[in-house]
TrEMBL record, chain A:
GO cellular component: ATP-binding cassette (ABC) transporter complex
Family: Belongs to the ABC transporter superfamily.
Keywords: ATP-binding, Nucleotide-binding, Transport
Record-linked PANTHER family: SPERMIDINE/PUTRESCINE IMPORT ATP-BINDING PROTEIN POTA (PTHR42781), SPERMIDINE_PUTRESCINE IMPORT ATP-BINDING PROTEIN POTA (PTHR42781:SF4)
InterPro entries: AAA+_ATPase, ABC_SmlMolc_Importer, ABC_transporter-like_ATP-bd, ABC_transporter-like_CS, Mo/tungstate-bd_C_term_dom, P-loop_NTPase, Transp-assoc_OB_typ2
Protein name per the record: ABC transporter ATP-binding protein
Domain ABC transporter: 4-238
Molecular function as annotated in GO: ABC-type transporter activity; ATP binding; ATP hydrolysis activity
TrEMBL record, chain B:
InterPro entries: Ferric-bd
Domain of life the protein comes from: Bacteria
Record's signal peptide: 1-23
Name of the protein described by the UniProt record: ABC transporter substrate-binding protein
A Pfam family assignment: SBP_bac_6
Keywords: Signal
Keyword Signal: yes
Lineage: Bacteria, Pseudomonadati, Pseudomonadota, Alphaproteobacteria, Rhodobacterales
Organism of this sequence: Primorskyibacter flagellatus
Automatic annotation (TrEMBL), chain C:
Keyword Transport on entry: yes
Highest taxon in the source lineage: Bacteria
Gene3D superfamilies per the UniProt record, alphabetical: MetI-like
Organism listed in the record: Primorskyibacter flagellatus
Upper classification of the organism: Bacteria, Pseudomonadati, Pseudomonadota, Alphaproteobacteria, Rhodobacterales
Annotated protein name in UniProt: ABC transporter substrate-binding protein
Length: 362, 347, 573
């Protein structure tokens, strides 16, 4: 059983904190993604886990043993981890089989055992027919498979992936993503996956840590992350969203022109997120106001629309002047300038933490 | 290095076995104990000036032939370079050289005054001609070769009638651009020659020489090779080398100047810190012996012993055809003259 | 919002002791080695030049002695004159060739490439000997031919003059300008020329107005390198300048070693040479930085320019340079090596194998020197490559703090001419307590110091081009740093390593000026022996030695080209 714990991990370069007091725990066999924009500290975190970087503060524990702390790190080669690099980092001077068997060789396994295990892994990634080739003779996808095979071959305690799909073209990317998922299911290796692509993270992860400016914004399952974002950054980074400014007042969230019940929290300024997918448009011809329990119906007008094939993307304006975006099915067609009802489930309006507010509160 | 030395000596030993037996039977009985003492040292390094490198190598081989088991490392250069290298050895605390044979007695005297020489009175020191004996009354060095500087010319370019007859003839404008001399800053022969020229004809001689646009070789031997090649037509050079060159078929001849050949007597000395002192003593005996005299006389040298006759073409030394420099002249004069020469000729 | 760190119940935090970091030890050893190789010798330059030779203590007297002596000042002046003329001549030789090879449809471009490579391979002192035989004013083959054809006795060319000396040096150093100029020309996109053409400029005007100005910074930078090569050169002046009565700085330097050796004067005399070198190197760097701006971009597609009849002019120029730099000296050296007497016609009577017999079987000295040469070159190349690789790796991967100091120390010998470096090494290690004078080790150490910058710079660019993830992959998969080096970095860079090794081997096998004061008879290398034996003017034996040296060097280079592609010797890093 493998557990990996990061406790209060910080990496500072001078005054700049690339990673700032980051803590999380991976369960055995879990697939966790570190998701964030470039420069958010996700790769630094991964490299601290790998042992390439010494933390400024905090510790990393593998199965309860401290492997990184400011006073010293267990070198990468003794961490029983493996890693897939952005560049694949397939050694060009070794054949496919030599690449895959390298970790086993480092474990000083007998030769025939190395050969057996290498062949086994290569069969799983369907590269057994290329065992004797050199990487230069392989396609990008095949190289990626070699990297994958190499990483799983030594049955590591933790497997680390650093944006492994970013160098592949779109079609291959999906294939490889499911290949990675398949490997994970097959071998059940505890995995940390770094990416800036939220769709990729959503598709592959058990849990996602959204990272911004060196801190974890939210750590949750993909579904909860989408449906219940807790911070403005998480809400904006995962999918698209509408952000509404308002106030919390005597148990309700009050916005310009409407209000909904609040699940709790102190009174004061408030920011809420509502996904365009949660908004539905209805034609508004006469004065009749539709009503449904738990639903809000707001009058608005279509100011622009873009047809995206699988859906319409509408730009809307409320009477208060607030702008919103909504997604509509292709068959429901509202022309620019139409007056509409915007149907919003009250539960879909999620209060989120906002960095400036949070700082103001502290 | 070791392996190669081993191979060499084995090969040499195999080849020379019958000869060695022969040589040993002829070996001077006085020398035998010295050879026995020297043999374990196995080699000797000889810094040598007054002969060309081919002759020097042959001399070294002759020694090994006579005294099997002792290899000679021949290091031939001009007097100044040899002395410079030796002093670099000394300054560095490295003992390389066993025996130095130099054409500039000032260098031997200098080493003696710095207490760097080994006093050795060779058993054969009395065998040389009287004129070449007793150069150093304290036995730190001994004259082992003598060689004349004379006028050399290319017979293809110059007829015997046209050739210069004396030293001032070299200043004839017809030799402009066709004259070679050596550099007293390098060559001991040229150094002594220059001292004597200045004494006889004043520094004016060199000012006029400059106007001749001469080719300046570093070694006096270069004068001979350059003239033989036709690069220059006449020159002031060592007559021994010129005769060797002529024998090889080069268009080369020598002239004894009417005002005299400059005789350069070259001393040999053993370094006090010689790494192979016994072999060095043996080598000193060899340098004074008959075998080397026979060998070098064959190479047109002027013998220092009475029991070998010079080859035909080698000018006999007489009272009125030689110019000799005193030891004092050499010690005091050569470096001063060399410096003046550098200022005049710019090099 | 961050997840609370939770300790797994029932498990205490154990701590693995971090393993001892050996990289620091390696760093310390490398730093120490560089102190021995670079700091200690080079610091002698400053120390000795300001120290009173007898009493010790600070003095300016050495500089006063040097700068008040007319002959010494003349030597500097001659050196500057010589270097200026050499630069002009080499530009004239190299620039048209570089232009022809890089930009035009001139035929015979492959031949021009080999001309440059050949000129690079022939050691300067051998080229000098070749040209003494070719252009000696009276006996030189060219002048005799001239006299035979015209009847004029006045020589056509006289090698024993400043012009002759500059010419011979230029024939040896023009490849530098060629290399820099071609790589600059190669970066200029054809589109720039086409843009000029579409606006009405013909090929000549385009070249003059667009191409040449764009390449100018690189060419000027190369000119400075040629200038520096020339002022630091010893072999060629020793052979030609003395007979020509033209004293230059390097020949003057050697006279300070005559007994009594005046090391302090030699040091003081060297200081201006080092200063000039530093200034010009700095200027060259500035120049090249400007150059990369001017010829920025990916270079774009390049189409050889169609230059019509001009291509025959360029072809003729290329053939002429090849004849002068490679063919004539090589032919004269080969024929001389088989001649009884070099100045005689090369007839059957005049042919012999005696010279080769003499050097190979008669003269122990020559065999020793050949053995020494290859021993020193082999060790020097190996040490340079290994050391250069280790330092480059540490520096590029920033494995230690202050790695840039290592880099600075490693390249700093570039600023010191070889002959001055030799003096520094002589002062530092020849005497007690190490007394290394006359040992091959001293030569190897000096050569390593001198050529380490080449290995370092070249291998740095190799390491820089490698993705560090390749090494990280080794480590995360269980291999240590050392294994990453030996199993991945070195194998991946094996062509670079081999290329550097061969380059340094070739340069070591012919280096003269660094060896000059460090050689006694024990450690003489061929270059030194050639110089020593040239005193006597016996060119037949010298030519035989030179031919032997050329054959071996060419074989090594040919092997390198077979494995590394044809331009590995001339690649600019």
């Amino acid at each position: 059983m493998t557990t990996l714990q990061l406790r209060g991990l910080t990496k500072a370069y001078g005054a700049f904190k690339a990673v700032d007091d980051l803590s999380l725990t991976l369960r055995d066999g879990e697939f966790l993604s570190l998701l964030g924009p470039s420069g958010c500290g996700k790769t630094t975190t991964l490299r601290m886990i790998a042992g390439f970087i010494t933390p400024t503060e905090g510790t990393i524990l593998l199965d309860g043993e401290e492997i990184s702390s400011p006073s010293g790190v267990v070198p990468p080669e003794r961490r029983q981890m493996s890693m897939i690099f952005q560049s694949y980092a397939i050694w060009p001077n070794m054949t496919v089989a030599q690449n895959v068997g390298f970790g086993l060789r480092m474990k000083k396994l007998p030769k025939d055992e190395i050969a057996r295990q290498t062949a086994e892994v290569l069969r799983v990634v369907q590269l057994d027919h290329l065992a004797g080739r050199y990487p230069a003779e392989l396609s990008g996808g095949q190289q990626q498979r070699v990297a994958l095979a190499r990483a799983v071959a030594l049955q590591p305690k933790v497997m680390l992936l650093d944006e492994p799909l970013s160098n592949l073209d779109a079609n291959l990317r999906e294939d490889m993503r499911s290949e990675i998922k398949r490997m994970h299911t097959e071998f059940g290796i505890t995995t940390v996956y770094v990416t800036h692509d939220q769709a990729e993270a959503m598709a592959i992860s058990d849990r996602i840590a959204v990272i911004n400016a060196g801190r974890i914004e939210q750590l949750d399952t993909p579904h909860r992350l989408y449906s219940r974002p807790t911070t403005r950054f998480a809400a904006e980074f995962i999918g698209r969203t509408n952000l509404l400014e308002g106030r919390r007042q005597s148990g309700r969230m009050v916005f310009d022109g409407f209000d909904v019940p609040s699940s709790g929290g102190a009174d004061g300024a408030l920011l809420a997120s509502v996904r365009p997918q949660n908004l539905r448009l209805l034609p508004r011809r006469d004065g009749a106001v539709p009503s449904e329990p738990g639903m809000l119906f707001l009058p608005g007008r279509v100011t622009e629309r873009i047809f995206l094939g699988e859906r319409w993307d509408y730009g809307l304006t409320l009477a208060s002047g607030t702008g919103l975006r909504a997604a509509g099915p292709p068959e429901e067609d509202f022309a620019t300038g139409s007056e509409v009802w915007i149907a919003v489930p009250e539960a879909a309006i999620i209060p989120v933490e906002d960095e400036p507010m949070r700082e103001a509160a502290e | 290095m070791k392996r190669r030395t081993f191979l060499m000596t084995t090969a040499a030993a195999a080849a020379l076995l019958p000869l060695a037996a022969n040589a040993a039977s002829h070996m001077d009985e006085k020398i035998a104990p010295l050879y026995e003492a020297a043999k374990p040292e196995g080699e000797i390094t000889w810094y040598v000036v007054p002969m060309d490198s081919e002759t020097a190598e042959r001399v070294g081989q002759k020694f090994t032939e006579l005294y099997p088991g002792i290899k000679v490392n021949v290091v031939r250069s001009t007097a100044t370079v040899a002395f410079q290298k030796l002093n670099q050895d000394i300054d560095s605390g490295v003992a390389n050289c066993d025996v130095l044979t130099t054409s500039n007695v000032a260098h031997a005297e200098d080493l003696k005054s710095r207490d760097l020489l080994l006093k050795y009175a060779p058993m054969r020191k009395g065998e040389a001609l009287a004129a070449f004996q007793g150069a150093d009354p304290d036995d730190f060095y001994h004259i082992t070769t003598a060689g004349p500087m004379g006028i050399v010319y290319n017979t293809d370019l110059v007829s015997e009638a046209e050739a210069p007859k004396n030293w001032p003839d070299l200043l004839d404008p017809k030799w402009k651009g066709k004259l070679a001399i050596g550099h007293p800053g390098f060559s001991g022969y040229v150094g002594i020659w220059a001292v004597k020229m200045e004494e006889l004809y004043g520094w004016d001689y060199f000012d006029k020489l400059l106007e001749q646009d001469p080719y300046i070789g570093r070694s006096s031997i270069d004068v001979v090779t350059t003239t033989a090649a036709g690069e220059t037509a006449v020159g002031a050079g060592p007559m021994t080398s010129a005769l060797i060159s002529a024998e090889k078929g080069n268009p080369m001849a020598t002239i004894v100047p009417t005002d005299g050949m400059v005789i350069i007597t070259s001393p040999s000395c053993i370094l006090k810190n010689a790494p192979h002192p016994e072999a060095a003593k043996l080598f000193m005996e060899f340098l004074l012996g008959k075998e080397i005299a026979e060998l070098t006389v064959d190479q047109f040298s002027t013998p220092i012993r009475g029991d070998v006759t010079p080859r035909e073409g080698v000018a006999p030394l007489t009272e009125d055809n030689v110019i000799t420099a005193t030891k004092e002249q050499i010690i005091d004069g050569v470096s001063v003259t060399a410096e003046k020469f550098r200022d005049t000729f710019g090099i | 919002m961050t997840e609370q760190a939770t300790t797994i119940p029932g498990e205490r935090t154990r701590r693995r002791a971090p393993r001892f970091d050996w990289t620091f030890v390696v760093f310390a050893l490398l730093a120490l080695l560089l102190v021995v190789l670079v700091v200690s010798p080079l610091s002698r330059l400053v120390i000795e030049s300001f120290t009173h030779p007898k009493e010790g203590g600070f003095t300016l007297q050495n500089f006063v002695d040097v700068f008040t002596r007319q002959r010494y000042l003349t030597a500097y002046w001659h050196t500057l004159q010589l270097a200026g003329v050499t630069v002009a001549m080499s530009v004239f030789m190299a620039l048209p060739m570089a232009f022809a090879v890089s930009r035009t449809d001139t035929p015979g471009r492959g031949m021009m490439f080999f001309a440059v490579l050949g000129a690079f391979i022939i050691p300067p002192f051998l080229g000098a000997i070749g040209w003494i035989l070719l252009a000696g004013p009276n006996a030189g083959w060219i002048n005799r031919l001239w006299e035979g054809l015209t009847g004029y006795e006045e020589p056509l060319v006289n090698i024993f003059s400043m012009w002759g000396l500059a010419f011979v040096i230029a024939l040896n150093v023009f490849p530098l300008i060629f290399i820099f100029a071609t790589s600059a020309f190669d970066l200029i996109s054809s589109e720039m020329e086409e843009a000029a053409a579409i606006h009405g400029a013909g090929p000549l005007r385009t070249t003059w107005l667009i191409t040449l100005p764009l390449a100018l910074p690189a060419v000027l930078g190369a000119c400075m390198l040629v200038f520096l090569e020339t002022i630091a050169l010893y072999g060629t002046p020793a052979l030609i300048a003395i007979p020509a009565r033209f004293n230059v700085a390097t020949t003057q330097l050697t006279t300070f070693f005559e007994y009594p050796a005046r090391i302090e004067l030699a040091m003081a005399f060297s200081v201006p040479l080092v200063l000039v070198t530093i200034v010009l190197l700095a200027a060259q760097r500035l120049m090249l930085r400007g150059g990369t701006v001017a010829v920025s971009g990916k270079g774009g597609a390049r189409e050889p320019m169609k230059i019509g009849r001009w291509r025959y002019v360029l072809l003729a120029h290329g053939i002429l340079v090849m004849l002068l730099a490679v063919v004539l000296p090589a032919v004269i050296l080969v024929t001389t090596s088989f001649s009884v007497a070099w100045a005689k016609p090369f007839t059957f009577d005049n042919m012999t194998l005696q010279n080769f017999h003499e050097i190979l079987f008669e003269q122990q000295t020559v065999r020793d020197a050949i053995w020494n040469t290859y021993k020193v070159a082999f060790s020097g190349a190996t040490i340079c490559t290994v050391l250069g690789f280790m330092i480059a790796y540490m520096v590029i991967r920033k494995m230690v703090p202050m790695a840039s100091i290592l880099a600075f120390l490693t390249v700093s010998p570039v600023a010191v001419p070889g002959i001055v470096l030799a003096i520094c090494f002589y002062a530092a290690y020849a005497g007690p307590p190490l007394s290394m004078y006359g040992s091959s080790l001293l030569l190897i150490v000096a050569f390593v110091t001198r050529f380490l910058p080449i290995a370092f710079v070249s291998l740095s660019s190799g390491v820089r081009s490698m993705n560090p993830e390749l090494e990280e992959a080794v480590r995360i998969h269980g291999g240590g740093r050392f294994r990453a080096l030996t199993e991945v970095v070195a194998p991946v860079l094996k062509k670079n390593l081999l290329g550097v090794w061969i380059l340094v081997f070739v340069i070591c096998s012919r280096e003269l000026s660094t060896a000059i004061f460090l050689s006694s008879h024990n450690n003489r290398v061929i270059s030194i022996l050639t110089l020593d034996l040239s005193e006597q003017g016996e060119y037949e034996n010298l030519a035989a030695m030179g031919v032997l040296l050329l054959v071996i060097t060419t074989a090594v280079v040919a092997i390198g080209m077979r494995f590394l592609g044809r331009d590995f010797m001339l690649r600019r890093n």
